[in-house]
Amino acid sequence: KQEVTQIPAALSVPEGENLVLNCSFTDSAIYNLQWFRQDPGKGLTSLLLIQSSQREQTSGRLNASLDKSSGRSTLYIAASQPGDSATYLCAGSGNTGKLIFGQGTTLQVKP
Amino acid sequence: ETGVTQTPRHLVMGMTNKKSLKCEQHLGHNAMYWYKQSAKKPLELMFVYNFKEQTENNSVPSRFSPECPNSSHLFLHLHTLQPEDSALYLCASSQDRGYTGELFFGEGSRLTVL
Known about the structure:
The complex is a heterodimer. Chain A contains no helices and 11 strands. Chain A has strands at residues 4-7, 10-14, 19-25, 32-38, 44-50, 56-59, 62-67, 72-77, 86-93, 99-101, 105-110. By secondary structure, chain B is mainly β. In chain B, strands 2, 4, 5, 6, 9, 10 and 11 form a 7-stranded mixed sheet that branches. Chain B has a 4-stranded antiparallel sheet with strand order 1-3-8-7, with no helix packed on it. In chain B, a hairpin with a 2-residue loop joins strand 7 and strand 8 (73-79). The interface between A and B is medium-sized, with 24 and 22 residues.
């Protein structure tokens, strides 16, 4: 059964720091991986999608990579800002075709 | 309107009530999903519809009844719920069912069962 672990569960950093969020899958056969952001009481906003033929994606200050051999993904946030404070979730689909979510990393960026 | 819209945003109901959640997507997608998000648990997939046909039901209790009249609209009918059903219910859509594309979510409907 595919399970997703996100480390750390919570993170607090001062503004301007670069940071890395981690996501790992028990089954490394990941077909598709997506990173989301969720603000309190809100829905999920798609940040980056890494499809089967790709290894990384970049959008502005965000970079996500996927190592299929190990079943690990990282989300790199450069020059963090208070507006980046939110919960970040990763989700991956494998051979079953189901998208499995991690529990998220709650990020606080302090001014 | 753009994206995925869910109504109502907040709902409080008693255990004997019947209510419905509505989802509408304006993205021209063919697949729609219901997810449940409870505190301290990962998102749980409930139902999947592809081209109006239900393709997945993840052992969801019958007190939750989905309906998909067309590719743009998805409902979740609720009846005789339990307090443990209190959660954020999220609707999502994607171009196709196979999870090869990007998943887009609505803002969610926060349900409280008294």
